[in-house]
Amino acid sequence: MGLLLLVGWAVASPFLALRGLQQAILSKDKAAIERYVDFERVRTDLTAQIREKVRQQLDANNQNSLGRLATMLSGGIINQVVNRVVTPEGLADFGADALNNQGQQGGVEAVRQWRLGLEWPPGLRIYNPQRGGAGLRMELQDWRWKVVAVNLG
User: Fold this and answer.
1) Backbone phi, psi, residue 142, to 5°
2) Which residues are within 8 A (CB) of 83 and not within 5 positions of it... i.e. 6 or more apart?
3) Exposure string (b/e) for 61-76, b if CB count within 10 Å is 16 or more?
4) What CA–CA distances, in Å, run from 74 to 50, 54, 78, 80?
5) Per-residue pLDDT tens for 97-146?
6) Which spans in 27-150 are helix H?
7) Rounded to an integer, what distance in angstroms lies between the CA atom of residue 73 and that of residue 15?
8) What are phi and psi of 101, to 5 degrees?
9) pTM for the full model?
């Protein structure tokens, strides 16, 4: 009986987590969003992705002295922006806008069309199948699925 319950939970819990996150974002329920998101990990991951994209862009433009100074200064700006955006309200806006099939469908409909995929190391990917690489990564924490990263695509 216990094994059957464990298997049932393992199969159902990702779908229940996706549905709970969708409902929290659609209703803009800050407390519910906080239950589904590890904001510290999302901030750390997003900051690293943005810094890497800035570095790549500056490297591609043959970074000169002014470019190196811009790179050094951008770190503080990136931190401030990420800290202001990666909040329950910001994630609700991300879900409604950033995964919305490049503006061709409404944000609410985009959130409803989110799908689950498995990732390695073990985790879940939440994505809009029409959007490509952008999405969210969920991992199991204390028997609950939580968003731990944003993939900008």
Assistant:
1) 50, 45
2) 43
3) eeeeeeeeeebeebee
4) 10, 8, 6, 10
5) 544 444 444 567 777 888 888 887 788 998 888 777 788 899 999 989 99
6) 30-36, 39-60, 65-85, 88-97, 107-112
7) 42
8) 60, 45
9) 0.78
